[in-house]
Amino acid sequence: MLLWSYLITVFTDPGSVPEHFRRELEGENLEAGTSTDQGAFGSLGYCPKCRNVKPPRCHHCSVCQRCVLKMDHHCVWIVNCVGARNYKFFLLFLFYTFLETMLDVIVLLPSFIKFFSQAIKHSSSPGNLASLVLAFVLNLAFVLSLLCFVVMHISLLSTNTTSVEVHEKNGDVRWKYDLGKKKNFEQVFGKKKAFWLLPLYSKDDLDNMISLHGLEFPTRSDIDP
Ligand SMILES: [Zn+2]
Ligand SMILES: [Zn+2]
């Protein structure tokens, strides 16, 4: 599951602004007679580097040198950006890596305790002891840092916020994309429970949930006008 989630996160495009996006938008606004600020896509920005319109929640990544839909962050571990279309896979990768390193720590713990309690008369070779200590310490370090990361992303997920948006949120006002915990979770993981632990989406979710494509996102005023 870890490898599957990892590879899918690496090879899934986090989402880029379609080339025809601007033209479509202008067409829609001409028909609706609205300005680009109040169009069907909500408030839009402009990226001077890509010279293109920025859909809501889209940000320019200086490493990828392009705009990424619902950009969360650029991740060096996956050599890719984490955005609208691979955020779920990234979270699953985090989750499974956390479980895997946790399992390692639990399995290695008895041998590690034995190593210190029988410090004088070791029966194993120095090579075995060194790899045991190294594996235990590295796994423990990963478990602790992943735990912080998992807790941080659970809090972001429960409020439907990206790592970039944390700085944009106005402290007093409830975040406009915060639809309530269950809906926020579904916005990323989809509605089909059977697919929640798999780095996949059901066809129904891909067809019916606009947020999974990264160009439009329901806001609180859509569900609770
Ligand atoms: Zn850009
Ligand atoms: Zn990037």
TrEMBL record:
Its EC number is 2.3.1.225. It catalyses: L-cysteinyl-[protein] + hexadecanoyl-CoA = S-hexadecanoyl-L-cysteinyl-[protein] + CoA. It holds the Pfam family DHHC. The keyword DNA damage does not apply. Residues 44-168 form the Palmitoyltransferase DHHC domain. GO terms for molecular function: protein-cysteine S-palmitoyltransferase activity. It is found in: Endomembrane system. Keywords: Acyltransferase, Membrane, Transferase, Transmembrane, Transmembrane helix. One of its GO terms (cellular component) is endomembrane system. It is a multi-pass membrane protein. The keyword Transmembrane helix applies. Belongs to the DHHC palmitoyltransferase family. This is S-acyltransferase. It comes from Arabis nemorensis.
